Each structure stands twice: as C-alpha cells, then as structure tokens.
C-alpha cells in the first residue's frame, strides 16, 4: 500500500513546481514597482496595494491612474472591470472547494491569481481523476506562498529603487509575463475545439483594444468567450 505524501511535502512541491514561473513574474513585479515609484508611490503604498489586491493587471491600471488627488471611484471601477474574470475563475474552482470550511475557502479565493488558479485547478482535476478528492490545499498553499511573496516583495523593491532603474519596460522584460501565460495554456490544452472560446475571446478583446479607449477590452473579451462557450455547449 502506497502512503500519501505529507502536507509539508505537498507544500514544498507546490513551491518547486511554481518556481519556474518566477522568471516571468519577477521582472513584471519590478516593472510595476518602478512605474509606481515614478508615479510617486512609496514602497509601503506599493506593498499594501499588491498585498491586498494581488491581481497584476488591475494593479498596472491603478498605477497608470495614480495621481494626487486620487481618482478613487475611477480606480475602483477599472479594478472591478479587470478583475471581473475572477468571478469566472472562482466559479470554475467552486466544485473543488465544497469540502472546505468557509474561512479556508475564502483564503483560497483571496490568494487566487491567474497562475495559482491554473495550477490549483489542474492539480484538482488530476486528483479527481485519481479518486483522491478535490483541491490539494497544501500544494495550492505552496504555489500561492511563493507567488505572493515574490510579487509583493519585488513590487515594493521596485517602488523603493524605481528612479535608479529608469525605464525598465524598455529592456524587453515585458515578454516574460505573456510567456508564463502561454506555458499555463499549454498545460490546459485539450484540443482546438475546446480552445475556440479562447480564440474568440482573444480576437474580440484585441479588436476592442484597438478601437475603444479604456479597459473595455476586458469585459468584451470575457463576454465573447462566455457566449461562444455557451453556444458550442448548446449545439452538443
């Protein structure tokens, strides 16, 4: 009889398997911090924003809107729009959280970013197929721990030393983050038919980005992907 790995071993496995993504995450955290520092944000303000929000896309939008006095309503609205994808991500996660107490489920959702969601969901699906239950909480905690600490730490570091770095985005590090998403998509790939909603969402978001000011490409791409997935589901 084979014994199951201990929670500590699963926690460390989560750290190990998510560590390659830090290559893409770290420079983006620095870029965010540097841009925030150049906008007048202190390292503490950056630490608090990234620590309480932990959603990179909306944080870049917030930094670009960072002026004094703060347009609080505008920042809150843009953040809500960009983070609306978390509603869908949380819904996909929900079947794997039913066995958790409310406090733990809320903690899982708080630390849910694109990377931790993709790795946690893939792990949960593997365990479900093997008859081992749902979410592997120690593994997920390991993934979230290293991603969270790296993100908020290097964002605050970038804000503190921002003026010394200059225009970090011009160094080409921006390609690292899309590369991380491509790796995540590769792990979730189930064939072209299943990817059709992704393609439609991408095309609609790109067209909206090129033709409409603001962050409307986010809800437009999300809605298009949802409607496409619903349409193909109805046909089957």
From TrEMBL:
List the InterPro entries hit by this protein, alphabetically: Brnchd-chn_aa_trnsp_permease (IPR011606)
Give the subcellular location: Cell membrane
- The answer to whether keyword Transmembrane applies is yes
* Bilayer-crossing regions: 60-82, 137-162, 168-185, 192-210
Q: What Pfam families does UniProt report for this protein, alphabetically?
A: AzlC
How the protein sits in the membrane?
Multi-pass membrane protein
Superkingdom, natural source: Bacteria
Keyword Cell cycle on entry? no
Q: What is the protein's major site of localization? A: membrane
Keywords from UniProt, A to Z, are: Cell membrane, Membrane, Transmembrane, Transmembrane helix, Transport
Q: Family, per the entry?
A: Belongs to the AzlC family.
Q: What is the protein name given in its UniProt record?
A: AzlC family ABC transporter permease
Which source organism? Answer: Neisseria lisongii
